[in-house]
Amino acid sequence: MGREFAYHKVYRYLQALIDQAERSGEQRLPSLRALARHLRVSLATVQAAYGLLENEGRVRSVAKSGYFVQPRVNGGANRLRRCPEPVQPSLEGSLFAHERRLARQRA
Questions:
Q1: Which helix (H) or strand (E) element contains residue 36?
Q2: What is the distance, to the nearest Å, from the Cα of residue 48 to the centroid of all Cα atoms in its chain?
Q3: Model confidence over 40-86: pLDDT tens digits?
Q4: Residues 72, 22: contact at Cβ < 8 Å?
Q5: Helix (H) or strand (E) holding 62
Q6: Is 12 exposed, middle or buried (0-12, 13-18, 19+ CB in 10 A)?
């Protein structure tokens, strides 16, 4: 299928963290900056992944406190468990541009 965008990888990483947090009862997720440093991606990439999860209702953001796991309703059976399609065109364009810059730096 080819190369995968960084925000999809971060999205799947966060899904795994959320699943683990739900089992352990922990509610707080890593900060944007800490996760960007840990995964070696840009802050915008982490924000895009958190934004997708927030739109799905899997996480909620609390101003000046961070991101938290959103408790599941009815066991969470209504939630999709697949990688999302690309996001809004404006955000998608900036992410594509960022991905191209990173690819050129690696080459």
A1: helix 32-39
A2: 6
A3: 999 999 999 999 999 988 999 988 888 999 877 655 444 444 555 55
A4: yes
A5: strand 59-62
A6: middle
Provide the CATH number for the domain around residue 83.
Answer: 1.10.10.10
Is 1 inside any structural domain? Answer: no
Structure tokens at 75: 């066991």
Cβ-proximal residues to 28 (8 Å cutoff; 6+ apart), any chain: 66, 67, 68, 69
Q: Which domain holds residue 75?
A: 6-106
Alpha-carbon separation of residue 59 from 8, 42, 67, 94, 106 (angstroms): 16, 20, 7, 23, 32
Q: Which residues contact 48 (CB under 8 A, 6 or more apart)?
A: 7, 10, 87, 91, 95
Whole-number Å distance between alpha carbons of 45 and 80? 21
